[in-house]
Amino acid sequence: MTVGLGSSRSLSFWGSASASTPTPTPLPIPATPEVSEIDSQLEGFAATTPFPEPTSVPEVVTSLNIPSTLEIPPLNYGDLASLGFSHWTPVGIAQWSMELVQVASGMPWFWTIVTVTVLSRFIVLPFNIVSLRSSAKLAPHQPRLMQLREKLQNTGGLTKDPIAVQTISLQQKQIYEEAGVSLMGPLVTPLVQLPVTIGMFLGIRQLCDLPLEQLKVGGFGWIMDLTVPDPTYMLPLAMIALVNVQLSVGDQF
Questions:
Q1: Is the pTM of this model over 0.70?
Q2: What is the Cα–Cα distance from 1 to 218, expressed in whole angstroms?
C-alpha cells in the first residue's frame, strides 16, 4: 500500500471542531455639538438664571452672628488658687472668702465684696463689743488714769526712773482691777481687727492689680470695671462722710 507524500491528514485526539470568535461591535460616538450651539446654550442659561449679588464683609459677619467681644466665663472653685491666691494668710483667706461667696451665690463682684466686708465686720463685732464695754467701765476712772500718764511723762519716760515707772504701773493696774477690766482687753480688739481689715484691703487690691478679668464686668451703674478708680469720686466722698459720722457717734459714747 503506497501512501502519497503530497497528501496530508491532521490527526487529533480531541476532534476537529473549530471555535468561531465573534467580532466586537464598535460603540457609537456621540456627535460633538458645534461651538455656536454651546455659546447659544450658555447665553440662554445666563439670561434665565439670576446670579447673586456680591455681599460685603460686614454683612457676612452679621449673618454669622459672631459676637464683637468674647464673653468672660464665670469664676469657679479653685481658680484663685491656680492663679497664686487663696493661701493661708489674712490676704489669702480674704480672697478665698470672696471666691466662695461669689461662686456659691452668683452675685456680681461688687456685691460680693460688700457681702464679705459685712461678714468680716460681724467676725470682729464681739471684740468691738468687749472693747466698748471696757471703755465704759474705765470712763469713771479716766481722771486718775490721766494723772498717772502725766506723772509718767514728768519722770522722763520709761528709762529715766525705773522705780517711779514701776510704781505708776502698779497704780494703773489697781485702777483696772477696780473697774473690772483686764490690761490686755483694750489690745485684743486691734490685734483681731487689724489682720481682717488689712487682709480685705490687700486682697482686693491684688485682684485688681492682676487684674482678675471677672472684676472688669462685675460692677454696677457707672463703675462696671472694678479694676479702675471711680471717675466721679462719689465712692471716696461717701466713704469720707461715713468715717466722719462714725467718729462723731463714737465720741458721744
A1: no
A2: 129
